[in-house]
Write a structure and sequence with these properties.
single chain; mainly alpha; Leucine-rich Repeat Variant; two-stranded parallel ribbon; 16 helices; 2 strands
Length: 293
């Protein structure tokens, strides 16, 4: 249908839109996404990404976000990001908008690409998400929308201390996220709980944890020196023993739904940055972050 319906005939447009939206939904499933990639549909979908029909463009960019690799997406991150940020800017946070589900879901996927993440911040997308989470009517927000919005805000904090600081200074936002966390725990919604908990960890707890870790490392260092003096051994021997105990720099715990993203992060950290990473399918309950700590 998509290869034969590249026309401007108004009668064809509803069919084209439904087809694009269906393909977008299907592309979110890993097995089907792999099949779509093998069919090499990028050029066909790109044709719809440049049409004047905003809904078709949105669906097309959503598909491209799922099937394109890092290099392809980074060739034109601005245009791809703009259509979704524009949707956020038109949002009435006091009204329920079912179309927001796909917008947020796609943006969350795009956040794994550094250039797109920069564009989302540059184009003001975060400000609109903060308004949605902080000031939106809880009765008009679906749990999926809150979850995706919080995950986007959470992801934006990585390697961006300015964003962390801005969130720390917004006490109304952090208070609202704490309420969301408690509500998610009470209603046994683990994915929403994880998103809220992740945000709170990065904004409120990580810095304190790092300070505690540094203090603990200093304490161990002093104990090591003292032990070496008492035993008459060298500090080098103590360091070698310590290195054997600390085999990994970090652990990534993930669910099957996040498998593709987790493996891309794993390869980036190990192959490009040289970290030692323990990659483990998530089997923990409650707060994953605190369980890891």
């Amino acid at each position: 249908i998509l290869k034969t319906q590249l026309t401007t005939d108004p009668q064809d447009q509803p069919l084209v839109l439904v087809t694009l939206q269906a393909l977008h939904d299907l592309s979110k499933t890993p097995d089907i996404r792999a099949i779509i990639k093998k069919r090499e549909l990028t050029s066909t979908i790109k044709a719809f990404a440049s049409t004047e029909n905003s809904e078709q463009r949105k669906a097309a960019f959503g598909i491209l976000a799922e099937i394109m690799d890092e290099k392809e997406i980074n060739e034109n991150p601005s245009e791809m990001t703009a259509i979704f940020v524009d949707q956020l800017k038109q949002l009435n946070i006091q009204e329920y908008n079912p179309n927001l589900d796909n917008t947020l879901s796609t943006l969350k996927g795009l956040m794994q690409h550094e250039e797109v993440k920069k564009e989302i911040i540059k184009q003001g997308g975060l400000e609109n998400l903060v308004l949605f989470v902080r000031d939106g009517d809880p009765e008009k927000q679906s749990t999926n929308q809150l979850e995706d919005a919080l995950e986007i805000l959470w992801l934006s904090t990585f390697d961006n201390p300015d964003i962390v600081t801005s969130f720390q200074q917004d006490t109304k936002l952090t208070t609202r996220v704490h309420h969301i966390l408690q509500h998610a725990k009470q209603h046994k919604n683990p994915t929403l709980e994880k998103a809220a908990d992740g945000f709170i960890w990065k904004v409120e707890k990580e810095e304190k944890f790092k300070e505690q870790q540094q203090a603990e490392q200093e304490r161990k260092k002093q104990e090591k020196k003292k032990r070496a003096q008492e035993n008459g051994t060298s500090e080098m021997a103590e360091e070698e023993e310590e290195e054997e105990e600390e085999q990994y720099d970090l652990m990534i715990s993930y669910s099957w739904a996040d498998m593709d993203l987790a493996h891309r992060i794993f390869h980036h950290l190990t192959e490009k940055l040289g970290y030692k990473v323990w990659l483990d399918q998530e089997q923990m309950h409650g707060s994953t972050i605190e369980a890891m700590v």
